[in-house]
């Protein structure tokens, strides 16, 4: 009697899906972030939502692997944005990952950001300092199983909007005691080592990421990819 080897399923798994949520996309966004988009495209399927209704419909019918929020429109408390804002929050609390990056920190109003974190997420995070300095990968982020640290730089210089009142375990990068502001105009000054430009926090069953870099540093692109699970 011959033995038959059970058939194995050789069907390749579907690539992850990344939704670019761009409710108020600037005309130069595509040109500025070509490298990031190309890298994501090589690893995942990209979907784009450029209007509140379009985004709400997509999130009603689909569950992407991660959402990259590319501008700060979502923080504005306009009636037209309420449905998509609620969809985003529910998506994260139910196990999804949302990353606030690219143009998000560049154009967000300080009071809007702080209010949004507090009222929509119940977070004490606040808009902090804005400067360039060298930040270091926090050893505490090793405890974050969702974040692949393999491709992350140990340290790098970035000009960013920092956040205040972020728990240490959620701060991915932090300044050190030797970090100083870096400017072509002003002399170096000591920075607040409690503030962070990169955050990845466990919210409900999911994750909320923030990358405050305003200059699209290559290292920040690596951070975005890691947060998206790529």
Describe this structure in words.
By secondary structure, the chain is α/β, with parallel strands linked by helices. Helices cover 27% and strands 25% of the residues. The chain is built from seven helices and nine strands. Strands 2-1-3-4-9-8-7-5-6 form a nine-stranded mixed β-sheet. It is globular and about 50 Å long. Mean pLDDT is 92; it is low at 1-9.
Quickly list its features:
nine-stranded mixed beta sheet, alpha/beta
Summarize the structure.
The protein has helices spanning 29-32, 34-43, 52-61, 82-93, 104-107, 110-121, 218-227, and strands at 17-21, 45-49, 66-69, 97-100, 126-137, 155-164, 171-175, 198-203, 206-211. It is of the alpha/beta class and 230 residues long.
Uncertain spans: 1-9
H-E order: EHHEHEHEHHEEEEEH
Q: Which range best describes the helical content: under 10%, 10-25%, 25-40%, 40-55%, 55-70% or over 70%?
A: 25-40%
Which structural class do the helices and strands define? alpha/beta
Please write out the topology:
Elements: E1 17-21, H1 29-32, H2 34-43, E2 45-49, H3 52-61, E3 66-69, H4 82-93, E4 97-100, H5 104-107, H6 110-121, E5 126-137, E6 155-164, E7 171-175, E8 198-203, E9 206-211, H7 218-227
Parallel strand pairs: 1-2, 1-3, 3-4, 4-9
Antiparallel strand pairs: 5-6, 5-7, 7-8, 8-9
Helix pairs in contact: 3-4
């Amino acid at each position: 009697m011959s033995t038959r080897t059970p058939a194995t399923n050789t069907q390749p798994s579907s690539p992850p899906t990344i939704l670019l949520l761009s409710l108020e996309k600037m005309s130069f966004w595509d040109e500025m972030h070509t490298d990031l988009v190309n890298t994501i495209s090589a690893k995942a399927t990209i979907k784009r939502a450029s209007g509140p209704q379009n985004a709400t419909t997509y999130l009603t019918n689909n569950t992407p692997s991660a959402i990259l929020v590319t501008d700060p429109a979502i923080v504005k408390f306009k009636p037209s944005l309420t449905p998509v804002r609620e969809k985003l929050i529910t998506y994260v609390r139910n196990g999804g990952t949302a990353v606030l990056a690219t143009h998000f920190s560049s154009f967000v109003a300080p009071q809007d950001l702080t209010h949004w974190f507090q009222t929509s997420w119940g977070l004490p995070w606040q808009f902090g300092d804005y400067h360039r300095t060298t930040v270091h990968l926090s050893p505490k982020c090793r405890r974050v199983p969702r974040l692949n640290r393999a491709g992350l730089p140990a340290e790098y210089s970035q000009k960013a909007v920092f956040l205040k009142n972020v728990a240490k375990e959620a701060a991915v990068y932090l300044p050190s005691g030797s970090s100083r502001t870096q400017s072509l105009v002003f002399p170096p000054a000591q920075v607040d080592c409690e503030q962070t430009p990169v955050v990845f926090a466990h919210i409900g069953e999911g994750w909320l990421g923030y990358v405050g870099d305003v200059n699209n540093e290559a290292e920040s692109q690596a951070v975005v990819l890691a947060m998206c699970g790529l």
